Queue: 2 jobs
Job 1
Amino acid sequence: MRIHVIQTGIFAIKSVQPEGRGKGNPILNIVLDKNWTEPLPIFAFVIEHPEGLIVVDTGETARVAEPGYFPWWHPYYRFGLQEWVQHEEEIGPQMRAIGLDPRDVRWVLLTHLHTDHAGGLAHFPKAEHLVSRSEYTYAKGTGGLFRGYPSNRWPRWFNPTLINMQPEPISSFPVSYPVTRAGDVRFVPTPGHTVGHLSVVVTTSEMTYFLAGDASYTQALMLSEKIDGVSPDRATARQTLERVHAFCRATPTAYLPSHDLDTPDRLANRKVAIASSTPTAVMVGAV
Ligand SMILES: [Zn+2]
């Protein structure tokens, strides 16, 4: 099994978004914040697995530069987001550059449906797309558009498999969803950043990789269990961060969020989130 990280451009968001500021309306907090983050990477992942090619999130599309791509009336796109993506930075061309054909992808796993995770869907018309039922329900249609998901830009053929968690605990998570038959690639529920947010746990004989999506924007924010500025449900977000933290304490884990500058280094050099982790077997399917 081999995991590749692919950077599909950069974005800047308001400072209040990754770190949060406690209470108040998230969108209003973002609109009123005058400070932008430094440009941050938009990462996606490709896993070469014996059961087939797996993509985790699809990154962003260069189409974001087209006038009117995002709804002009939505305050988040107008005041809260700047993105820079070149055509050759999209996930399709980048996969071809490393000798992988996007048409060979078996599964596209979506941590959530925000634009910078679902923007590259058009590259994978033949794959099976997996997303949580609650995320898809929340993101689709006109309602989803208002809630900040550009559902009008999803490819017409986009008809994802909606997954339900199985009673298969893994470490601190009481349920999970096995993607591969081997059970070494599985979804765990990490709601908070969005209602149906998922993360992907990849277990190898050497260590575990936690593909976190936006469960937190950085590893430091996960370790300090700091809730971000867009989570609609703070209690749920807190519980998720506690669970992810506990997972990293129990198991040597490389923690790989989608916008953390250190994600490629952690992946390449197998750097664990908590160095003092003592190797313990990951309890897959234990009752
Ligand atoms: Zn997001």
Job 2
Amino acid sequence: MGCACASAQRADGLAALSPRPVERERVYIVISPMQPQENVALAPLTTFQIGGPARFFVEAKTRTEVREAVSFAHSRDLPLFVLGGGSNLLVSDSGWPGLVLKIAIDGIDRHPGEVEGKILFDVGAGESWDDFVAHAVSSQCAGIECLSGIPGCVGGTPVQNVGAYGQEVSETIESVEVFDLKDGEVRELCREACGFAYRSSIFNSTEHGRFIVLRVTYALTPGGRPHLEYADLKRYVEGRASAPSLVETRDAVRQIRARKGMLIVEGDPDCHSAGSFFKNPIVSEEQHRDLEKRAAAKDLALPSYPALDRRKKISAAWLVEHSGFHRGFIEGRVGISTKHSLAIINRGSASAAEVLALKDTIQMQVDQVWGVTLEPEPVMVGFQ
Ligand SMILES: Cc1cc2nc3c(=O)[nH]c(=O)nc-3n(C[C@H](O)[C@H](O)[C@H](O)COP(=O)(O)OP(=O)(O)OC[C@H]3O[C@@H](n4cnc5c(N)ncnc54)[C@H](O)[C@@H]3O)c2cc1C
């Protein structure tokens, strides 16, 4: 589908952004009738279950409430943090000194008819991501079935271009409706404007802190076949007489995730995490050769996958495991999941400082053994 905004060129470097504001009201003139709560514990709002309180907290169910909350933060000169499902965060022990704005805009609206063979779904940023996947799959629409079971809300998915088992949301996101904190306008950004790459977009890089995601439009394929490229998933469906349906693929993905502690399951202590704590490093051919040599010296074979621009993606889990950290590793109140070596877990009442200490130890050790600096995936909130 064509990009409505790719041709917009502006002198201020916003060439990729849509020139098309969805509405023209400015935020800063709104007088806020809202009453945010004070000193709200953030730990229960995160999957890590760690972190101090928010000085102010508000939940916004509509664009107007988002606007009011932003106005409140501006009027008091408070730093603003936008919260989704809290599944990709490490909140500091001192919490957040300003306003935490939880986006709770709901709704799944299916456009009538098809556009270039796709069905468009407009989804509120506060909808549960996995509920939307379930909805899409049961509507026989393909494109996100491998992303089943990822916790969090729809608004969080474009931020780090969520991906798993061979799919990324960048492949199906048609556009993202945002509130632009720079000028108080609501805009629609096309896929190209979002600058998607591996676990990255403009929302967590070049334009970090500028946009609040309000809605996301996904273009899915009606009657499409499930994407079965990933080795784990292929193995799971091997030997079947017929190809699995979208619903069966979703079930398989959720079962595989549960085995790895990557599905939020009530009572599973391995779920008190932010998922994978480190990104898979992408290295140059030269670095890759060096890593292969180091691995060969230890009688190991380095698992790697092709990445863009003649680079290679290395498994961060493998690097962690071959640097002395096994699944089930314990360090006081924190540790590594018994099911996945990339998940740092809260073993009960852990502090953010303890998580950071373990993160530092792992990074240091991997660097020493492999010469690779692992980059954390979760967003650090409220650290000085
Ligand atoms: C068990 C487990 C498994 C996971 N598996 C995967 C996986 O397979 N693949 C993967 O990619 N990720 C995975 N994750 C990480 C996480 O679930 C995703 O990154 C998710 O999309 C985060 O969404 P959220 O709503 O929880 O965002 P939050 O954690 O609340 O926020 C994350 C970041 O997004 C920003 N944000 C959230 N909502 C908005 C909004 N509406 N507007 C602007 N900014 C916003 C926040 O400010 C913050 O910077 C996993 C996490 C866990 C705990």
